[in-house]
C-alpha cells in the first residue's frame, strides 16, 4: 500500500516542480546586466549635482531581470535604494 501511495505521489510532485520562466519588464529590459558606477546624483543646497565616484574594484553592480540591484558580491546592498528611476520615471 505504501508503494502505491509513493508511486502516486511522485509524479504529482514532479509535475508541480517545474521551472518558472520570468519575463523582464519592458521598462528595464535594456538595463539588465552588469554596470560600473561612475557618478551619483546628490542634492546639495537644494540643487542636484553629479558627483564622480573614484574607480575601485568594488564599483560594479548588477541589475537582475526582475529589477533587483545587486552589489559586486552578488548580494543586495545593505543600505540599498528603496526606489530608483530611469529618465525620471519610477521603476
What topology does this entry show?
Layout lengths: L1 H15 L16 E4 L2 E6 L2 E6 L7 E4 L5 E2 L14 E2 L2 E2 L1
Antiparallel strand pairs: 1-4, 2-3, 4-5, 6-7
Concise synopsis of the structure shown:
It is built from one helix and seven strands. With 91 residues, it is α+β, with helices and mostly antiparallel strands. A three-stranded antiparallel sheet has the order 1-4-5, with no helix packed on it.
Key traits:
about 90 residues; alpha+beta; three-stranded antiparallel sheet; two-stranded antiparallel sheet; 1 helix; about 15% helix; about 30% strand; elongated; Lipocalin-like domain-containing protein
Report what the structure shows.
The protein is 16% helix and 29% strand. The chain has a 3-stranded antiparallel sheet, with no helix packed on it. A two-stranded antiparallel ribbon has the order 2-3. A two-stranded antiparallel ribbon has the order 6-7. With 91 residues, the chain is α+β, with helices and mostly antiparallel strands. It comes from Salmonirosea aquatica.
Amino acid at each position: 500500500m505504501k508503494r502505491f501511495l509513493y508511486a502516486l505521489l511522485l509524479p504529482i510532485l514532479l509535475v508541480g516542480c517545474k521551472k518558472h520562466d520570468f519575463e523582464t519588464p519592458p521598462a528595464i529590459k535594456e538595463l539588465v546586466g552588469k554596470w560600473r558606477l561612475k557618478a551619483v546624483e546628490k542634492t546639495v543646497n537644494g540643487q542636484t549635482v553629479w558627483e564622480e565616484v573614484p574607480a575601485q574594484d568594488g564599483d560594479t553592480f548588477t541589475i537582475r531581470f526582475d529589477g533587483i540591484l545587486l552589489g559586486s558580491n552578488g548580494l543586495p546592498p545593505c543600505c540599498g535604494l528603496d526606489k530608483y528611476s530611469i529618465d525620471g520615471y519610477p521603476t
